[in-house]
Amino acid sequence: MSSTSRLTCLALTALAVSMLSPALASGRMSIIYDQEEAARQIFTGPNPLTPERGGLRQDPGAGGVFRADDGPHRLTKVNGRELSTMSVDQMVRTLKGAIDDAPLRGGGSGLVGVDEIGTFFRDPAVKTRYTTTTIRGSKIRHATHNRIVQTPTGWRLVIRSSAPPVPGAAHPGRRLSAAMEILAGMPSPFGGSYASRVNFYMAPAFVTSVGEGRGPHFTLGRTGGKNIRPGWRGVVRGLALGRVWLEMYQGSGDAVSSQTWRNVSKRLGPYLAKHGGSGLPQLHFLISGTPNAPKGAPRGCGSPMSCQWLLANSTPAGRAVLANGPGAYRAGDQAAEWLANYNRYLPN
To answer: Are residues 104 and 147 in the same domain?
Structure first.
């Protein structure tokens, strides 16, 4: 690159930093990841979600935030599935490049969204091993990590949790964590480290496993006796170094259950903090339009959209996450109601 090109890039970067979205200055962020009409209702409706209130738009998004100075309030995007196939060095270059690309496109928030962190970053399935213990002539089959204890009248099963192994360094989750470690050591011209500029959209499979799973890594079933679902141990360190956006819907289009709404924040916050993250301050809800109220929601919780906001606000951890700034994903014809609830719970 010539000296003139370097100076031009530096000048563009400095300009982008000077135009940095107020969302980062205020600490509240709300990414609108939606179609044009839904986004228009949110950004231009009554008491709209403006950039000054933390509003940002995920690219590609026609109309942006619907104002002339649109550039500083948009996020670039990286495909999560494609990212999972890359080497550590390729991941670093891709994420850093998406962040650095902003000033070259005439603006940009210096933020990137990764859509999405799903099953291709999940740990391999854990195989439960079984053994047989003989008590008073009876053979009892049980998982090897559990124990059979003889009692005066028979026997009882002592359930002990079994931690799933951390996947090897070649696993996509481990590679992403390694890439984020490198980015965490690289100061960004937009502020903070490059890792702090990465926003991970977490697939429903991740959200429901944290909300409904048991055990230290959310892999255990209802009894806690065996691992019934793969964990996320390989990727969690990488997540802890960025921002985490929870997709609060299921593949069917319905919202996640009320159990997941109440559990996911209080479980995931400490889990990320344990792996070097800030915990609750780095979490955000992505709230979608849905035809039905969440399963298990209290009677009288309101419309499907309003009920989701009520559940988001129903626990101390949920209220903390809501205060970070919720996002919208496929709000559709419920976009106006999304904005009304935003103004109800976050009036300032």
So the answer is: no
Residue 215 sits in the same domain as residue 248: yes
**pLDDT for 169:** 97
Contact predicate 54/22, CB 8 Å = yes
pLDDT value, residue 2: 44
Q: Assess whether 154 and 222 both reside in one domain.
A: no
State the Cα–Cα distance between residues 54 and 32, nearest whole angstrom.
10
Domain boundary among 101, 135, 161: 161
Q: How many CA atoms lie within 13 A of 74 on its CB side?
A: 25
Averaged pLDDT score across all residues of the chain = 89
- pTM value > 0.85: yes
Select from 161, 187, 222 the last residue of a domain: 161
Residue type at 10? L
The count of structural domains within the chain is 2
Query: Any bridge partners for residue 193, and if so which?
Result: 187
The amino acid occupying position 161 is: S
Distance CA 10, CA 243 (A): 26
Query: At what angle are helices 304-312 and 258-274 packed, to 10 degrees?
Result: 40
What is the per-residue pLDDT for 6?
39
Residues 276 and 211 placed together within one structural domain of the fold: yes
Using H for helix, E for strand and C for coil, what is the string for 112-160? EEEEEECHHHCCCCCCCCEEEEEECCEEEEEECCCEEEEECCEEEEECC
Q: Is pLDDT of 273 > 90?
A: yes
Q: How far is it, in rounded angstroms, from Cα 58 to Cα 348? A: 23
Whether residues 189 and 239 share a domain: the answer is: yes
HSE, CB side, 13 Å, CA atoms: give it for residue 64.
16
- The residue-averaged pLDDT of 222-235 equals 83
Which of 193-220 are b and which e, b meaning 16 or more Cβ less than 10 Å from the residue's Cβ? bbbbbbbbbbbbbbbbbbbbbbbebbbb
- CA–CA dist 121, 91 (Å, integer): 13
For the record, the structure tokens of 206 come out as 């991740």
State the Cα angle at 199 between 197 and 201, rounded to 5°.
175
* Residue 33 CB neighbours (<10 A): 25
